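Readers of this paper often ask what the protein records in our data store actually look like. Such a record has a labelled line for the sequence and another for the backbone structure tokens. Nothing more is needed to write down the fold, since each code stands for a local backbone conformation. The record that follows is passed on verbatim for readers who wish to inspect the format.
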Amino acid sequence: MKALITLVLVAALAVAAGLALQSVDGYVVFVVPPWRAQLSLTLFALLLVLVVIALYLSLRLGVMLFGLPRTLRRRRDAWRLRRAVRTLVRLVRAHVLGDAATVQRLAQRLDRSPGVAEAGAALAAATALERGDEARAENWLARLERWPDVRTVLEAEFGVRFSRPERLQAAMERLEKMPALPEATALRLRLEAAQREEKWQEVLASARRLRALESMDAAKAAALIRQAHLNEASSRLALGADLFAWWKRLPKEERFDPEFLAALARLAIERAQGGKVRPILEAALDKRWLPELVRRYPACLDAAERQAALARLESWLQAHPEEPAVLEALVELCLELKLWGKAQDYLARLRRLGADPKVLERFAARLQSAEAGRGGAILPAP
């Protein structure tokens, strides 16, 4: 539409100029002795316009010819860049799909493209690190001269992956001097290094900070925090230290983590130190009802604590009358205290709730063995 309007305007101007020149009777005389040339004013105007157009076109042609090498070079570079970008897209796709051979091949091709060579080398190095290919990872890291921050991060991962503490330490020292590096990246590397060296306090601090920054999946952060706490608890159990005071100092969301509490109880029971976690289980169950902890409660009792624990379990039963875990714990504790009648009563209630048949069979066998041992009647089948 714009071109059509421009054409109409030019045609209108040409017609107007032609009509105006028809009414002009003047002429132009050029005198160069002994020659003399006389032109009508209309012809002179037309020749002048043609000369101007010819000069303009000649100038444009000269400029174009003069800049032709630069233009060709720029177009060639643009074509190479487009081809390199297409290769980089394929490389990224191969990296995500885990096609290590394609990544190496495409990265070699990109090595001849200065604009994107570092990107290809970084992806190739990351792929080699994931695959555990130390030689190739080393080779690609050496090519990241223009990306010192990326190289330092990958160097740290190299040190972690291939157990090279000197490389890891050097990379971590360089990271400290890079204020522009994202905090989450530095924290992730510190976390990996701390895990490798089993520095659980550093693991705990890094995982908490990454969780606060929302730079780590909440479930993964919770698992790392749980692992750090369990390793701390294991050390304390080995030293015979108090667990309850340490547990009370933990943040609330970590202190009452069900998986952590269950794992802590298992750890103490396996170490034959269940009494160390009994106060923890009681405090946790007062705040949050967790059937798994109730089932493990009898195994955490010393002989002198069983009678008081029986009263506590009966109070829990009043609060949770339909809870199989409490009845299982009561049967277990009554068997330990040799309260056969109570054990039979609680086992009968457990049957009415439809508890696990294997659990019922195990308790019934123990009761039957106890009755046979003291010469009493055999427990009747349900």
Observations:
- The two ends are 95 Å apart (CA to CA).
- The chain has a mean pLDDT of 85.
- The longest helix spans residues 68-97.
- The beta strands are 27-32, 35-40.
